[in-house]
Design a protein that fits this description.
This protein is α/β, with parallel strands linked by helices and 182 residues long. It has a single domain (20-174), classed as Vaccinia Virus protein VP39 (Rossmann fold, 3-Layer(aba) Sandwich). The protein contains five helices and seven strands, in the order αβαβαββαβαββ. It has helices at 11-17, 35-41, 54-63, 100-105, 139-143; strands at 25-29, 46-51, 67-71, 86-92, 107-118, 148-157, 162-170. It has a seven-stranded mixed beta sheet with strand order 3-2-1-4-5-7-6. A hairpin with a 4-residue loop joins strand 6 (148-157) and strand 7. It is globular and about 40 Å long. 36% of the residues are buried. Mean pLDDT is 90; it is low at 1-6.
Length: 182
Protein backbone atom coordinates (compact mmCIF):
# COMPACT_ATOMS: atom_id res chain seq x y z
CA UNK A 1 0.00 0.00 0.00
CA UNK A 2 0.99 3.57 -0.54
CA UNK A 3 0.45 6.77 1.43
CA UNK A 4 0.68 10.25 -0.01
CA UNK A 5 -0.11 13.00 2.42
CA UNK A 6 -0.40 16.69 1.92
CA UNK A 7 0.12 19.25 4.66
CA UNK A 8 -3.54 19.63 5.60
CA UNK A 9 -6.61 17.45 5.52
CA UNK A 10 -8.14 16.34 2.24
CA UNK A 11 -10.58 18.80 0.71
CA UNK A 12 -12.99 15.88 0.28
CA UNK A 13 -12.91 15.03 3.99
CA UNK A 14 -13.35 18.69 4.94
CA UNK A 15 -16.25 19.11 2.53
CA UNK A 16 -18.24 16.29 4.09
CA UNK A 17 -17.35 16.60 7.78
CA UNK A 18 -16.68 20.29 8.51
CA UNK A 19 -20.28 21.20 9.36
CA UNK A 20 -21.01 18.30 11.70
CA UNK A 21 -21.35 19.27 15.34
CA UNK A 22 -18.78 18.33 17.96
CA UNK A 23 -19.14 15.12 19.89
CA UNK A 24 -19.31 12.67 17.01
CA UNK A 25 -16.97 9.69 16.73
CA UNK A 26 -14.73 8.95 13.76
CA UNK A 27 -12.47 6.11 12.72
CA UNK A 28 -9.46 7.40 10.77
CA UNK A 29 -8.24 4.20 9.15
CA UNK A 30 -4.60 3.99 8.01
CA UNK A 31 -4.26 7.49 9.46
CA UNK A 32 -0.61 8.09 8.55
CA UNK A 33 0.56 11.35 10.09
CA UNK A 34 -2.90 12.01 11.55
CA UNK A 35 -3.86 14.98 9.40
CA UNK A 36 -7.55 14.00 9.47
CA UNK A 37 -7.58 12.73 13.06
CA UNK A 38 -6.08 15.98 14.37
CA UNK A 39 -8.31 18.15 12.16
CA UNK A 40 -11.43 16.36 13.41
CA UNK A 41 -10.27 16.39 17.05
CA UNK A 42 -9.78 20.13 16.71
CA UNK A 43 -13.48 20.35 15.84
CA UNK A 44 -14.57 18.39 18.89
CA UNK A 45 -14.78 14.89 17.43
CA UNK A 46 -13.68 11.81 19.34
CA UNK A 47 -11.29 10.08 16.94
CA UNK A 48 -9.86 6.58 16.81
CA UNK A 49 -6.73 6.72 14.65
CA UNK A 50 -5.45 3.37 13.38
CA UNK A 51 -2.12 2.78 11.63
CA UNK A 52 0.80 0.35 11.59
CA UNK A 53 3.40 3.11 12.13
CA UNK A 54 3.81 3.41 15.89
CA UNK A 55 6.03 6.51 15.65
CA UNK A 56 3.31 8.46 13.82
CA UNK A 57 0.73 7.28 16.32
CA UNK A 58 2.90 8.44 19.21
CA UNK A 59 3.13 11.93 17.73
CA UNK A 60 -0.64 12.02 17.19
CA UNK A 61 -1.42 10.82 20.72
CA UNK A 62 0.82 13.44 22.27
CA UNK A 63 -0.82 16.18 20.18
CA UNK A 64 -4.45 15.68 21.19
CA UNK A 65 -6.04 13.77 24.05
CA UNK A 66 -9.32 13.29 22.15
CA UNK A 67 -7.53 11.02 19.66
CA UNK A 68 -7.25 7.38 20.67
CA UNK A 69 -4.44 5.67 18.76
CA UNK A 70 -4.49 2.00 17.83
CA UNK A 71 -1.33 0.37 16.51
CA UNK A 72 -2.35 -2.41 14.10
CA UNK A 73 -1.11 -4.13 10.99
CA UNK A 74 -4.32 -3.84 8.98
CA UNK A 75 -3.12 -6.25 6.32
CA UNK A 76 -1.78 -9.15 8.39
CA UNK A 77 -3.42 -9.03 11.83
CA UNK A 78 -7.02 -9.50 12.96
CA UNK A 79 -9.36 -6.52 12.74
CA UNK A 80 -8.36 -4.33 15.72
CA UNK A 81 -11.82 -2.92 16.52
CA UNK A 82 -14.32 -5.81 16.66
CA UNK A 83 -17.82 -4.66 17.55
CA UNK A 84 -16.99 -0.92 17.46
CA UNK A 85 -18.98 1.51 15.35
CA UNK A 86 -18.44 5.16 14.48
CA UNK A 87 -20.44 8.14 13.24
CA UNK A 88 -17.91 8.50 10.43
CA UNK A 89 -15.15 6.43 8.87
CA UNK A 90 -12.41 8.23 6.93
CA UNK A 91 -10.00 6.45 4.59
CA UNK A 92 -7.64 8.33 2.27
CA UNK A 93 -4.75 7.17 0.09
CA UNK A 94 -5.14 3.58 1.22
CA UNK A 95 -6.70 0.46 -0.27
CA UNK A 96 -6.68 -3.04 1.16
CA UNK A 97 -9.71 -4.82 -0.25
CA UNK A 98 -10.04 -7.50 2.47
CA UNK A 99 -10.94 -4.69 4.94
CA UNK A 100 -14.16 -3.67 3.17
CA UNK A 101 -16.53 -5.78 5.30
CA UNK A 102 -14.95 -4.32 8.45
CA UNK A 103 -15.06 -0.75 7.15
CA UNK A 104 -18.75 -1.07 6.31
CA UNK A 105 -19.66 -2.77 9.60
CA UNK A 106 -17.82 0.00 11.49
CA UNK A 107 -20.40 2.54 10.34
CA UNK A 108 -23.05 3.31 12.94
CA UNK A 109 -26.63 3.77 11.70
CA UNK A 110 -26.67 7.11 9.85
CA UNK A 111 -22.84 6.94 9.79
CA UNK A 112 -20.84 8.54 6.99
CA UNK A 113 -18.12 6.85 4.96
CA UNK A 114 -15.66 9.30 3.42
CA UNK A 115 -13.22 7.45 1.16
CA UNK A 116 -10.66 8.81 -1.30
CA UNK A 117 -7.86 6.86 -2.94
CA UNK A 118 -6.02 6.26 -6.17
CA UNK A 119 -7.66 4.88 -9.29
CA UNK A 120 -6.18 2.64 -11.95
CA UNK A 121 -5.17 5.62 -14.14
CA UNK A 122 -2.64 6.66 -11.46
CA UNK A 123 -0.21 4.02 -12.76
CA UNK A 124 0.26 6.12 -15.93
CA UNK A 125 1.63 9.14 -14.07
CA UNK A 126 3.24 7.92 -10.86
CA UNK A 127 3.00 5.82 -7.72
CA UNK A 128 1.34 3.68 -6.68
CA UNK A 129 1.52 1.46 -9.75
CA UNK A 130 0.61 -1.89 -8.21
CA UNK A 131 -2.98 -2.74 -9.23
CA UNK A 132 -3.57 -4.20 -5.75
CA UNK A 133 -3.57 -0.61 -4.47
CA UNK A 134 -5.51 1.02 -7.31
CA UNK A 135 -9.28 1.16 -7.67
CA UNK A 136 -10.90 -0.24 -10.78
CA UNK A 137 -13.38 2.00 -12.63
CA UNK A 138 -16.53 2.36 -10.52
CA UNK A 139 -15.15 0.16 -7.75
CA UNK A 140 -16.09 2.51 -4.91
CA UNK A 141 -19.66 2.62 -6.17
CA UNK A 142 -19.80 -1.18 -6.24
CA UNK A 143 -18.24 -1.53 -2.78
CA UNK A 144 -20.72 0.97 -1.29
CA UNK A 145 -23.86 -0.36 -2.95
CA UNK A 146 -25.43 -1.14 0.46
CA UNK A 147 -25.11 2.53 1.45
CA UNK A 148 -26.86 5.69 0.28
CA UNK A 149 -24.42 7.40 -2.09
CA UNK A 150 -24.25 11.13 -1.37
CA UNK A 151 -21.49 11.96 -3.84
CA UNK A 152 -18.99 10.15 -6.05
CA UNK A 153 -16.14 11.44 -8.18
CA UNK A 154 -13.61 9.75 -10.46
CA UNK A 155 -11.18 12.45 -11.55
CA UNK A 156 -7.69 13.81 -11.95
CA UNK A 157 -6.54 16.23 -9.26
CA UNK A 158 -3.50 18.48 -9.10
CA UNK A 159 -0.94 19.47 -6.48
CA UNK A 160 0.19 16.72 -6.44
CA UNK A 161 -1.02 15.37 -9.77
CA UNK A 162 -3.04 12.20 -9.17
CA UNK A 163 -6.04 10.16 -10.34
CA UNK A 164 -8.54 9.33 -7.60
CA UNK A 165 -11.97 8.02 -6.88
CA UNK A 166 -13.79 9.39 -3.89
CA UNK A 167 -17.11 8.72 -2.31
CA UNK A 168 -19.30 10.03 0.47
CA UNK A 169 -21.96 7.55 1.53
CA UNK A 170 -24.31 7.07 4.47
CA UNK A 171 -25.57 3.96 6.24
CA UNK A 172 -29.29 4.45 6.50
CA UNK A 173 -30.61 1.65 8.73
CA UNK A 174 -29.21 -0.46 11.53
CA UNK A 175 -30.49 -3.65 9.87
CA UNK A 176 -28.30 -2.94 6.78
CA UNK A 177 -25.10 -3.80 8.63
CA UNK A 178 -23.03 -6.30 6.64
CA UNK A 179 -22.08 -9.54 8.31
CA UNK A 180 -18.53 -10.89 8.38
CA UNK A 181 -16.63 -13.67 10.05
CA UNK A 182 -14.32 -12.74 12.92
Amino acid sequence: MFHTESVGPSEWVCRWLRDHPAGHSCLDLACGSGRHALWLAGRGWQVCAVDQDSSSLGAIASSDASVTCVHADLEAAPWPLPGRSFDAVVVTNYLWRPLWPYILSSLAPEGLLIYETFSREQARIGRPRNPDFLLEPGELLQRCQSLRILAYEDLRLGNPDRFVQRIAARRERADDLPRHAN
